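Exercise 7. Predict the structure of Phosphonoacetate hydrolase from Streptomyces regalis.
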Amino acid sequence: MNENPPPCPKCSCEYTYEMNALIVCPECSYEWVPDESATEGGGAAGERVVKDSVGNVLQDGDSVVVVKALKVKGSPSGIKAGTKVRNIRLVDGVDGHDIDCKVDGFGAMQLKSSVVKKA
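Solution. The predicted structure, encoded as tokens:
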């Protein structure tokens, strides 16, 4: 893509390199998408990257599949593995719950990105 990738937005290292669609900093191991940092000026929106259980980058509006059975407080049955969840929103949640969504039969809730896979 670029001959000279931009410096790292976290540590200002000049020795960044490209790896597929990401730019990587060898000093602090930070990874980011160059288009986001260019449009945001290296702001906070370009710094947040949420990945699913297998390493795919998630975005608002994606559909995901739950990869393991989850217990739900107040419900005799939990969410089964293989349940598809549509139109997710990425949030800064509590205790690692970074996905806000509606699950059929359960309603609105937050999930951890480590228990879902991009559909």
